[in-house]
Design brief:
alpha+beta, single chain, 2 helices, Lipocalin, elongated, eight-stranded antiparallel beta barrel
Length: about 130
């Protein structure tokens, strides 16, 4: 029995005196490449969430967008740049940012269809479905 206790004691001592490896010794994580394909790419028909009326058509492709408002003369109509994401997009510049729309998220409705919801900093303002 004594040799077994001695071996167990020696093992415990070795565990206590062995230095712990710091996590900083590991190589830094490699940055993820930017998203090049996003579920927000495509043509979308949008309705205004405030009154459920047709709001316009949105086209998103390869980091740019075009929006055609259903309201004649709207300052929202035009083009701009967008940063594509794995769950939507962020509007960088252009007409939609001028009217306060900052990002869009792709989710699913009750029938499992894609829905792109566009947001201003306070709330969702447009709901878009694929065309």
């Amino acid at each position: 029995m004594r040799p077994a206790l001695l071996a167990l004691g020696l093992l415990g001592f070795l565990i206590l005196v062995t230095p712990a490896l710091a996590q900083d010794d590991a190589a830094p994580p490699t940055p993820k490449p930017p998203v090049t394909v996003s579920p927000s790419e495509g043509n979308w028909g949008c309705i205004a969430l405030i009154d459920n009326t047709k709001a316009g058509l949105l086209t998103v492709f390869a980091g740019s967008y075009g929006y055609a408002s259903a309201t004649f003369g709207s300052t929202a109509s035009g083009t701009g740049s967008a940063e594509m994401g794995s769950d939507g997009l962020k509007f960088i510049d252009g007409n939609l940012t001028v009217v306060g729309i900052t990002y869009g998220l792709v989710t699913f409705d009750a029938a499992n269809n894609d829905v792109l919801t566009l947001y201003n900093p306070d709330k969702p303002v447009l709901s878009c479905t694929p065309r």
